[in-house]
Amino acid sequence: MKEAGDKTIVFTNFVDFDSSWGHRRDIAGYAAGLELFDRRLPELMELVGEDDILILDR
Known about the structure:
45% of the residues lie in helices and 0% in strands. It is mostly helical and 58 residues long. The protein has one domain (1-58). It is elongated, with a radius of gyration of 14 Å. The two termini are 20 Å apart.
């Protein structure tokens, strides 16, 4: 996001949430991944400008 220019779409898929931990494969791993994401979310929010749109989906 730091390097994305204006009028740019940044799409990110956190694959491990589904392929490694999801579908009840590893509940503890899924929870740990969510906790890590939650801790790092403020860093992401600092990069979001007032004219930007951030969409998070589970």
